[in-house]
Amino acid sequence: MQNIHFIINPISGSGNHIINEDVILNHFTKDNYNVKLKYTKQKKHAIFLTEESIEENADIIVACGGDGTINEVASCLVNKDIILGIIAVGSGNGLASNLKIPKNINKAIVQIKKQRILKIDVGLVNNNYFFSNMGIGFDAEVICQYESMPTRGLFSYVKASIKSFKSYKYLTYKYSLDNKEFSIQPFLFFISNSNEMGNNITITPKASLQDGLLDVVIIPKINKFRMLIFGFLLLIRKHYLLKEVIYKQLDNLTIIKNNNSAMNMQIDGELYILKNNELKIKILKKALTVITA
User: Fold this and answer.
1) Which domain holds residue 94?
2) Three-state SS across 82-122?
3) Do the domain assignments include residue 290?
4) Domain end position, chosen among 115, 144, 171
5) Measured between alpha carbons, how far is 103 from 120 in angstroms, rounded to an integer?
6) What is this structure's pTM?
7) Residue after which a domain boundary falls, among 84, 115, 146
8) Tell me: the pLDDT tens digits for 158-173?
9) Bridge partners of residue 188, in order along the sequence
10) 115: closest CA among 32, 193, 10?
11) What's the number of domains the chain is made of?
């Protein structure tokens, strides 16, 4: 009998989803599966629940929520034999989209039951894992604004982007690339493991979860008019036409901030405030086992 645990964020996607015992047991009968449903109560609670499920010898742990919930659950399963399942009910769902996991809950559950597994790469920045992407530029500012919004969804992302456009302040960083050191005030410093940010928006369409590389997009300081051009090009997936865009694929990267002020960073669409000056970023090859479509 297989032990399958569901870690459910009841407020993901504005709490409009219906993931409950009746829905789950319609697919996973108690005759063939040992099923447990656990509900998160606040940020980081999914970590505690996942660690508890590991102690309870779960074979599969299914993250039911948005990118933040998926990150919390998946972070506990890196380099473990336990399989990650995903039911994506958040506002972005970047990793789930890359894995072609259906947005429909029942169809996603059917895919979990089929158990077609894949070993994927995992990003690591200092002591934090990321599975889709991370950034320290404009995208981090957008997430900072987005988390202050009363509602979730694409419209709130647009509002957060407009506010960030007005308030974005440039910081100076040093980074090493191709054995050379550069100093930069970036508009965008985006590091990706997957080919989609969420909401069908991509900055790194060539990125792969299995190539052992991180896709890095850097845009140096640009004026607000060029920012608007970038935003338009991003919507039509032609952002690479902006002449300032620097694109690299690599397996590690070090970024150093020039002053001691706190720094905003986004990891899989969640805001992190960093006080240390140095970021060490690398890829862990095929470190997570996940169910895909």
Assistant:
1) 2-115
2) CEEEEEECCCCEHHHHHCCCCCCHHHHHHHHHHCCEEEEEE
3) no
4) 115
5) 20
6) 0.91
7) 115
8) 888 888 888 898 988 9
9) 219
10) 32
11) 2
